Amino acid sequence: MIAVRREREELDPRAKPPSDEIGSYATSLAAGELTDSELLEVIRGHWSAIENGVHHRRDVSFGEDASRVAQRSAAHAMATLRNLAIGLFEIQNSRGRVAAQGCKSWCRRMTVAVALKLLRA
Fold first, then answer.
1. Residue 99 CB: number of other CB atoms within 10 A?
2. Which residues contact 45 (CB under 8 A, 6 or more apart)?
3. Rounded to whole angstroms, how far apart are CA atoms 19 and 3?
4. CA 98 to CA 92: how far, in whole Å?
5. What is the per-residue pLDDT across 82-119, written as a single tens digit (0 to 9) for each?
6. Cα 44 to chain center, whole Å?
7. I need a labelling partner for 28 at 20 to 30 A (CA). Which of 35, 87, 114, 120 fits?
């Protein structure tokens, strides 16, 4: 197992005060299995998939970026509920049980009772 520590400094001159951001990554790869540049590409690919996959879907389906929820715990709860809705949609879609054109229209028809029933199935 190898661990990577990546440091990033805020380049926006308007940021007050400038801060450093440190990200840590752990992997099951053995040391030397990938070069530094290959490992960096894997990390970037992972975050690209998240940004372009999960986050994009949450924003398009649920308008997450426009959300006015400011309290951190409430925002986290809302993100969790959005992920749950997308997950339920994907499960039902893979089973061929979705008549809607996409997640957004499917979720608009969803009720709490039906969602709970799906979670128990």
1. 9
2. none
3. 22
4. 6
5. 888 888 988 898 989 888 878 888 888 888 898 889 88
6. 14
7. 87
Dihedral sign computed on CA atoms, order 103, 106, 112, 118 = negative
CA gap 88, 95 in Å, rounded: 11
Structure tokens at 118: 């799906």
> How many Å apart are CA 37 and CA 60, to the nearest integer?
33
Which of 9, 33, 4 lies closest to 20, judged by CA? 9
- State the angle between helix axes of 72-94 and 112-120 in degrees (0 to 180), rounded to the nearest 10: 60
24 sits in which H/E element? strand 20-27
